[in-house]
Write a structure and sequence with these properties.
The complex is a heterodimer of chains A (329) and B (117). Chain A is an alpha/beta fold. Chain A is built from 8 helices and 17 strands. Helices cover 72% and strands 0% of the residues of chain B. The longest helix of chain B has 18 residues, at 9-26. The chains are: A alpha/beta (329), B mainly alpha (117).
């Protein structure tokens, strides 16, 4: 008997669904045990695949595949949180070993009071600045940007912002030990160094946005980038900054690199940071701004605001690459 | 030649969109309608709008325009503000007055649909 309109047949079980419900909402409503994370099509923890075992060509309208690789799209994988199929679809879980690779913790230490550096051994191939989704267990997953550069390091490095009640960051801080294993899904995204070798760059990071920016910076330098590189590292106050010594050392070694640390709140105890507004700084204090390829990384509101300010200052949207950290449900 | 071809077709739309987008974002009366986190998506919508109002190829129907603007609670002040920015964008691009007049005519022809009158 054919399934009702808009229904989802999930691993042979027919689930009623209203036209406007996402696949994820429908599955959760029916108490199906399915992992999810950001609910925004970014972390890819809710990926499912179309079940074509009955050889019927499924209707693809309303199915969301953005960010998935070509191979994944061709295999009929979709993101449940963003998919609203316009006809009945048959879906099943994807074999997680097809999506995730194992990783072993080799180092874990604090970069400042609130950010943990996690170094992993893994086979995953990536471009510095891309992100991945880290699986604590079968149901808890969080996305983090990759700060390491394979040309320089043989480990994969993540910068984890610690939240007291954080389901993943709390576990990383208190329970995760060197030698422990976990699983990684990815790499994802297109936030990586891709510029003409002599083009001036502006790299701007807020908080742990420095993870991706640090990766992109190291990649640019390792690739022999000759153009001017302006790095602006911002935080609300000086306790939010980290990697100060490492970045000053890089600046000393590379003539074309200049580093500015900016904090909103004045702080006489921190000699290295200037007090300033990162939006004003980036739009008014950077030479040749309109020639630059610009990389921005940090929380959603910072990225949206700076991107808009740069656009209003006359910069083409095309010149700006942005990676926005969003909160997980 | 249509006004779209006269003023330079797709290339004209490309030149105009960023100028127009910056103008509407700077106008407090209407910036809220254009202020989206998805700037690329918003820019694409504006390119479609400009293509249409320049007399270029588009698939908008009156019903589409009504449906798209219905929930925004627009009034004639909003419409006039957008039309004003459209005109000043074309003036900045040194478009001939006759062509600007044509574009305004096309914009006025969709006013009732946009305002759901």
């Amino acid at each position: 008997m054919p399934a009702a309109m808009h229904a989802i047949v999930f691993e042979e079980q027919e689930l009623a669904r209203t036209k406007d419900e996402t696949v994820l909402d429908c599955l959760l409503k029916h108490n199906i045990d399915i992992a999810s994370g950001c609910r925004s099509g970014v972390c890819q923890s809710c990926v499912l695949e179309l079940d074509t075992s009955d050889h019927c060509t499924p209707a693809l309208t309303g199915l969301y595949q953005q960010g998935l690789s070509v191979e994944q799209q061709q295999a009929g994988q979709i993101l449940a949180c963003c998919s609203k199929p316009e006809a009945t679809v048959r879906l099943r879980r994807v074999n997680s070993s097809a999506l995730r690779v194992p990783a072993t913790v080799i180092e874990k230490f604090w970069l400042n009071d609130s950010v943990i550096c996690l170094r992993l051994h893994t086979q995953m191939q990536y471009r510095p600045g891309q992100y991945l989704t880290l699986w604590r267990d079968a149901s808890i997953a969080r996305s983090y940007s990759i700060a390491s550069c394979p040309a320089n390091e043989n480990y994969l490095e993540l910068h984890i912002r610690h939240y007291e009640q954080g389901a993943c960051s709390g576990w990383i801080a208190s329970d995760l030990r060197v030698g422990d294993s976990l699983e990684l899904q990815g790499p994802m995204g297109s936030f990586f160094y891709a510029a003409e070798i002599n083009q001036p760059l502006l790299l701007c990071a807020m908080g742990t946005g420095l993870s991706a920016i640090y990766g992109v910076l190291k990649d640019a330098l390792a690739s022999g980038h000759t153009g001017t590189i302006g790095l602006v590292v911002a935080a609300k106050n000086s306790s939010g900054l980290y990697l100060l010594d490492e970045l000053r050392a890089l600046e000393a070694r590379h003539d074309n690199l200049s580093v500015d640390f900016l904090v909103q709140a004045p702080d006489d105890s921190c000699e290295i940071a200037q007090q300033g507004d990162v939006y004003d700084h980036c739009t008014t204090q950077v030479e040749d701004l309109s020639q630059r390829k610009i990389y921005l990384c940090g929380g959603e509101s910072f990225v949206a605001k700076l991107r808009k300010r740069l656009f209003m200052a006359g910069i083409a949207l095309n010149n700006i690459r942005a990676d926005s950290f969003l909160s997980f449900v | 030649m249509s006004v779209y071809e006269n003023i330079g077709g797709a290339a004209a739309v490309d030149a105009a969109v960023d100028i127009f987008y910056r103008k509407v974002l700077s106008d407090d009366l209407i910036s809220g309608f254009f202020d989206s986190v998805d700037m690329d998506g918003m820019r694409t919508k504006q390119k479609s709008f400009l293509t249409m109002v320049f007399g270029g190829p588009n698939e908008y129907t009156g019903a589409d325009m009504r449906a798209a603007h219905k929930h925004l609670d627009l009034n004639v002040d909003h419409f006039n503000a957008v039309a004003g920015h459209l005109v000043s964008t074309l003036q900045e691009l040194n478009v001939a007055q006759a062509d600007i007049d044509e574009v305004v005519k096309i914009a006025l022809s969709v006013e009732d649909d946009v305002l759901n009158l």
